Amino acid sequence: MTSSMTSTDIKNQNAAAAGADMRFDDTDWHSLETSAVLETLHTGDQGLDTQESARRLELFGPNSLAEVQAKPRWKLFLEQFAGPLIAVLMVCGIITIFLQHYVDAAAIFLVLFLNAIIGYVQESKADKAVEALTTLSTPTTRVVRQGRMEQIDADQLVPGDLVLLESGDRIPADLRLIEALHLRIDEAMLTGESEDAKKNTDPVDRDAALGDRRCMAFSGTMVTSGRGRGLVVATGSDTELGEINDLVHVAKGRTPLQRIIHRTEVGIAIAVILVAVFVFIGGAILNGDATGAFLSAVSLVVASMPEALPIVLTVAMALGVSRMAEYHAIVRSLPAVETLGSITVIGSDKTGTLTQNRMTVEQFTLGGGQPVPVEGMDLGAEAVSDDDRMRGLAALARAGALTNEAHRQPNEQGGIEYSGDAVDMAMARLADQTGAVTTEDLDAPIVMETPYEPELLHSMTIRRSPDGTLTQYVKGAPDAVMAMSRTMLDPDGQVVPLDTQAVHKSYEAMGSQGLRVIGVASRVLSSDQDLASRRRPDDLTFLGLEGMLDPPRPGVREAIAECAGAGIRVVMITGDHPVTAAAIGRRLGLEHTDQALTGSEMLEMSDEVLRARLRETSIAARVSPQDKLRIVEALQDEGHVVAVTGDGVNDAPALKAASVGIAMGRSGTDVAREASDVVLTDDNFVAITQAVRQGRVIFKAIRGSAYFLLSTAAAAMIAVGVNVIAEEPLLFLPLQMLWINFVTNGVQDIALGF
């Protein structure tokens, strides 16, 4: 926003005016070593001093998002009188007053006022998207200044401040991490990934996507576990959240129906003015009565105006709103009702919309054997008692559940709800659903454990069973777990020497399907084992691999096929990895999933090339909020009417710019909901197809109503014109024409709207 006092340009101008070498807007902080970051920011482990922080606050402004003044209500009301037909009627009404035909003038202005009220009510909903963004800011934060820890208002943060982070904190600004201990941050609102991001301090490539910048912490995201320290590198409008805030301010263009009506209004206005001038001149010359001729011209103008159309539009769209609510689609903006019937492309987020937003183990394999589908598997004690292979699969599922930090708690329906890391929850759910783990297994005391750390690439737990036996369980990256193993289970469940080549083959087969693959191993220890020596596991038996994925929602594949049959193309636009997105796309039946478009590719593309690539692929992966917005605009430039679905803050700019923005009601953020036109209360893509069907019904009803009004208006215009040329007495007074258009025809037209 150029008018924002916290914009990058104004900050840099202030810095330059003060002679400060602090132009940070082009710095790729994620690609710099921590020492280079400290040097560039002119700070250190002791933080900034009071004088320097005050100076930087003056240069960079407060750490708050730019706000836009809402349009005054009076201005919004006056804008309702800006249409071409409205302008013609207003001129006629004013001249009618001068001719002292006050009843006709009053009737004309009454209709204009009613139309203005209807338009005002439709447009007067305040835009809450920016307000929702501001709720993501945190009021206070802990920083180190002059070597002391202080708690300050978050809007006083400046670049170079050293911020302390711990579990439960909301990130107050964009930070370059210089210390991370078991630090995990929920970045789903920015990246769309359901799994918490594991953070470290290592620099990454300059072209790394937002979700791959593991050494960064972004404003508005939440620390879910661990602790760390980070240097503020961007505040206010310069943060990733601030850029989204700016993008949300884009103006939404006219809907297809609004464009049609506008073109029709312009055409009618020109035709009516020409005919009215002809009638006035002809009547004045033929009858020698300029006043009567003008009243005839006014009658003709009034006869040509479809005054009842705004009412019919409102009634038809309100009816659509109630119908769509039956399919769990809540319409927040009336024009979205008819626009849904015109869409040609749906740009859909993946996580939580097309998929269940619940990581699920779909396949597992013993050692290096062939992947086995999990569905319908029974791994209870009785089912596996006489089968070594099944016992091996049960041991694999049990081991994954016993080195696990997922929390179980009963819900109101009598089932179990899981919380914690997405991978841990998936493995715990697998063991519970297949019966591989018992209550006694879960209650076995833990005598030693190592939580998962990115540096270790594994987690480890040692449990003591009731008979005193110690068992060590390990899970993590397959290569890391194999490096600790000496033996493995073969496909028949027998212990054999480790065959790394066979395991790699299974690993690649599962990975090619977009699965997240985890290796699992175990070892039985003697009861008098020196546990200190087992902190670093070795000599394990590699049990196998578990492949997990966020599975598609039931019915989505059928809904996408139905969209294709209706001439609507579905494009997946996600922040997830291309391989995962392509795998989900294939399972959903999307076309052209082999060559996914990525955000890094888009950096080098012109708009023309981007439009060409979008014609060749149905998947855009690892994209930023700016990329999503650009994709929507590229599709619209191709002439498409675009609907966008999403649930995160990163989806808000695209939701706002789309012809129809569709947000998720359950999992969606407040920002996404406020930027949208339609909210799906059940978060189900299937509801969109029902909403589109209703939208097409409404569009057809409105089109039929408009044709009826225009045809009757044309007939009245011809009647009045012939009446004047034939030198007959005035056929209709303006007041009578208003009655015919507004009441007689209006009632019939409303019936057509139903």
From TrEMBL:
Q: What is its main location?
A: membrane
| NCBIfam families named in the record | ATPase_P-type
Cite the entry's keywords alphabetically: ATP-binding, Membrane, Nucleotide-binding, Translocase, Transmembrane, Transmembrane helix
- Pfam families listed in its UniProt record: Cation_ATPase, Cation_ATPase_N, E1-E2_ATPase
* Lipid bilayer topology: Multi-pass membrane protein
Q: Where in the cell is it found?
A: Cell membrane
Give the residue spans that cross the bilayer.
81-99, 105-121, 266-286, 292-319, 706-726
Span of domain Cation-transporting P-type ATPase N-terminal = 28-101
Q: Which InterPro entries does this UniProt record tie to the protein? A: ATPase_P-typ_cation-transptr_N, ATPase_P-typ_cyto_dom_N, ATPase_P-typ_P_site, ATPase_P-typ_TM_dom_sf, ATPase_P-typ_transduc_dom_A_sf, ATPase_P-type_domA, HAD-like_sf, HAD_sf
SMART domains found in the cross-reference section: Cation_ATPase_N
Q: What is this protein called?
A: HAD-IC family P-type ATPase
